[in-house]
Amino acid sequence: MSETSSSNYYGPVVNMNDGHDNVGINYGTVGGGVQETGLGAAVAELTRLLGELREHLTPEQDRTVERALPELSPDPGALRERGLVLARVAQIAAAVGTVGQPVADAVARLLALLD
């Protein structure tokens, strides 16, 4: 009988990559699959884009993004309460210009889903 490796996560999962390029918390895996529709997909996309943007940020901007990432959740109630986090992320995206436009667009899509 051969052994197979299967991961089942129940609740938030944090993967730390030796302290580099950490982009947030996975809030939704149960039984090996994440259903990413609507808000969950928008949060995942924003998290991914923020990870890509970080190399273009000043140290202060990067620290702000680092603090914001754990606040991003596919829970609409939690995101509504964390509007300042989204505003800070959008402000940083605008400050870095063209390279930040995909992040600004992702924040706008996320906010539209919360309405």
Q: Topology of this structure?
A:
Blueprint: E1 13-14, E2 25-26, H1 39-53, H2 59-68, H3 76-81, H4 83-95, H5 101-114
Antiparallel strand pairs: 1-2
Helix pairs in contact: 1-5, 2-4, 4-5
Separation of the first and last Cα atoms: 53 Å
Structural class: mainly alpha
Query: What number is the mean pLDDT?
Result: 78
Rg is 15 Å
What does this molecule look like?
The structure is a single chain. This protein has 115 residues and is mostly helical. The chain is 50% helix and 3% strand. It has five helices and two strands, in the order E-E-H-H-H-H-H. It has helices spanning 39-53, 59-68, 76-81, 83-95, 101-114, and strands at residues 13-14, 25-26. The chain has a two-stranded antiparallel sheet. Helix 1 (39-53) packs antiparallel against helix 5 (101-114). It is globular, with a radius of gyration of 15 Å.
Q: How would you sum up this structure in a few lines?
A:
With 115 residues, this protein is mainly α. The protein has helices at 39-53, 59-68, 76-81, 83-95, 101-114, and strands spanning 13-14, 25-26. It has a two-stranded antiparallel ribbon.
Overview features:
2 strands, 115 residues, 5 helices, mainly alpha, disordered N terminus
